[in-house]
Design goal:
With 587 residues, the chain is an alpha+beta fold. Helix content is 34%, strand content 16%. Strands 8, 9, 10, 11, 14, 15, 16 and 17 form an eight-stranded antiparallel beta sheet that branches. A seven-stranded mixed beta sheet has the order 2-1-3-4-7-6-5, sandwiched between helices. Helix 1 packs across helix 7 and helix 4 crosses helix 5. Pfam families: Response_reg_2. This is Response regulator receiver domain. InterPro entries: REC. It comes from Herbaspirillum huttiense subsp. nephrolepidis.
């Protein structure tokens, strides 16, 4: 196992908190209590037999030729440990066999042992047995129980439905993961005794596709992905399963460890594993964070709010306060340099180099790739020659060699650094300091991009009395990096899953402009939805909202604008000005 995988597994163990296990044989039909573990002997039969549910159902099947019940030892076998395949039921060879492969379970397990095995990993496991004819719509008890769980484990053969009872639930969970809660990560495990696990996976895939729900087949024949949900089919140990699918068999006692590995596999990599680890740290420190927002502060906060109410709403300051506390938690759980180095090396060693970034006389492609891998873990010192300068061209060649130009990973990472994420389902964007907008030009497919420079405090509490409008200043951003000096670059995602590189430079006379807007009832300038786009309506033009810069990046641009406006024109000797502006050791 590589270090990145270990890092992801450790993060998954810390993150996972709850599991829902759904089965139709958790409770006794007679007492309503959890079924007892049963250990009995079973010879080999050509056809599978039904798994016993209660003592009475077993006793009813243990009659000799005269109709007399044979005694049966119901105590657990001394040679059977928790989670191991227990001995089977003794039955006459002429007993009527059932036709369902699902009923050849082969493993007896007490519900408490299942709960205990998850508890050993620090995970709460809820056992749920639905009633026959259960509903799976979004208002059903079963769906409400599953929708918030980190992991859902479903018995494929609920009430002998052959998957027909479960497919609608999987459909609704997958639909939710893509729409209602697109950012809720969930693992859905189908735990079944069906011999052909890949066939179960194919049925789920076909069902989701038939319902127009996006899903992708994983390289594993028993796994598929749909939105933020991963579906994996695991097998109960049973006979009749091909050797190629034996690796997907899991004893119930081993389910927690396997589920942790499957969940970690969803987040393997430097950034995914770190994000999962960070979220786990936040989950584990909720009490510390909540203590900072104690009710004893309510009075002082209301005084603060009342004093500033004419300028701004104090409740709008709370997200930043909360974010700062979360940031404090994350900085406390940073992995040490040894772990970081090991994880970076593990990921670098697996990067798919399609080619050598550059060619040097007397050096093979393999040697160059190894030097680049060393650079990715050790830094610039691992490079040699002109590449050691690490200019833009060198970085672009490395990006191209590892496929960033195809996946747009370089642009996606850049936008992550300088943009705030606008999650679907949140409020409409408002025009304020750092908002990036674009205006369609007369030329087909051409736009003018600009950043709003209105200070945040001047973007709220706007008056719209008698149709009063407010002027907002903007600075035009260039889509071309050439020309000028001291440029500031940002990357934004635009409709069509494309990315634009935007640069700030130039003079105020060429780039500074203003536009007026009518504030909304909320006394801010809000965007309106038009054809899946957020649009600000100005006098005679429409400005499409594209992104929101993070405060520090917006402030840097504003600082550069301020410096350009505060330049002092003086009369001086030209030779002295040129010498002062010269680069290097010009004489």
């Amino acid at each position: 196992m590589t270090t990145p995988e270990q890092f992801a597994i450790t993060a998954a163990k810390r993150y996972l908190q709850n599991v829902v296990f759904v089965d139709d044989e958790i409770y006794s039909r007679d007492t309503g209590k959890p079924s007892a573990a049963i250990a009995v002997e079973l010879p080999q039969f050509k056809a599978p037999i039904r798994r016993a549910q209660t003592t009475e159902s077993i006793t009813a099947r243990l009659k000799d030729a005269g109709g007399n019940v044979q005694p049966l030892d119901m105590s657990p076998s001394k040679n059977t440990s928790v989670g191991e395949a227990a001995p089977f039921l003794k039955e006459n060879e002429d007993a009527a066999p059932t036709t369902s492969h699902e009923e050849n379970a082969g493993v007896v397990f007490h519900p408490r042992q299942l709960v205990d095995s998850f508890a050993q990993q620090g995970i709460v496991c809820a056992l749920y047995e639905p009633q026959k004819g259960f509903s799976t719509d979004v208002n059903s008890l079963l769906f409400k129980l599953c929708e918030r769980a980190d992991v859902v484990i479903l018995d494929w053969e609920l009430f002998g439905g052959g998957g027909n009872n479960i497919l609608p639930l999987i459909e609704n969970l997958a639909n939710q993961s893509q729409n209602a809660y697109p950012h809720h990560s969930r693992l859905c495990v189908i735990y079944t005794g069906t011999p052909d696990l890949s066939r179960v996976n194919a049925r789920i895939y076909d069902h989701l596709k038939a319902k127009n729900i996006d899903c992708d087949q994983d390289p594993s024949p028993t796994t598929l992905n749909s939105g933020s949900m991963k579906v994996v089919v695991l097998g109960k140990p049973t006979s009749g399963r091909s050797e190629s699918q034996k690796e997907f068999e899991v004893l119930e006692a081993s389910l927690p460890e396997r589920i942790i590995r499957e969940f970690a596999a969803m987040h393997t990599g430097v950034l995914p594993a770190y994000a999962l680890s960070g979220l786990a740290a936040i989950r584990g420190n909720t009490k510390r964070i909540l203590d900072k927002f104690h009710k004893d502060l309510d009075g002082a906060f209301l005084v603060h709010r009342a004093a500033t109410l004419r300028q701004e709403e104090a409740f709008e300051q709370l997200p930043e306060l909360l974010a700062e506390e979360i940031l404090s938690v994350l900085t406390e759980v940073q992995p040490n340099s040894e772990v970081i180095g090991a994880v970076a090396k593990g990921v670098a060693d697996k990067l798919p180099f399609s080619k050598a970034p550059w060619q040097k006389d007397g050096t093979t492609s393999a040697q160059i790739i190894e030097s680049v891998k060393s650079f990715l873990t050790e830094g610039i010192s691992a490079l040699s020659g002109k590449q050691k300068a690490l200019d833009h061209k060198t970085i672009s060649e490395i990006h191209s060699a590892i496929g960033c130009d195809q996946s747009k990973a370089d642009h996606r990472l850049a936008s992550l650094f300088n943009l705030r994420t606008h999650y679907a389902g949140t409020a409409a964007p408002s025009l304020s300091f750092g908002s990036i907008v674009r205006e369609r030009l007369q030329e087909e497919g051409h736009y003018r991009y600009s950043v709003c420079l209105m200070p945040l405090c001047d973007s709220i509490r706007l008056s719209n009395k008698d149709g009063a409008k407010t002027l907002f200043p903007f600075w035009t951003l260039s889509q071309n990096a050439s020309g000028g000096g001291g440029k500031r670059g940002v990357v934004v995602r635009v409709p069509g899953d494309k990315y634009e590189e935007l640069y700030m430079f130039g003079k105020a006379r060429d780039n500074l402009w203003v536009e007026q807007f009518l504030p909304s009832e909320n006394h801010i300038v809000e965007a309106a939805k038009e054809n899946d786009l957020w649009v600000f309506n100005a006098d005679g033009k429409k400005l499409e909202w594209i992104a929101q810069l993070k405060p520090a990046h917006a402030q840097r641009i504003a600082n550069d604008v301020g410096m350009s406006l505060s330049r002092v024109a003086v009369i001086e000797a030209e030779w002295l000005r040129r010498k002062a502006d010269a680069k290097g050791d010009e004489r």
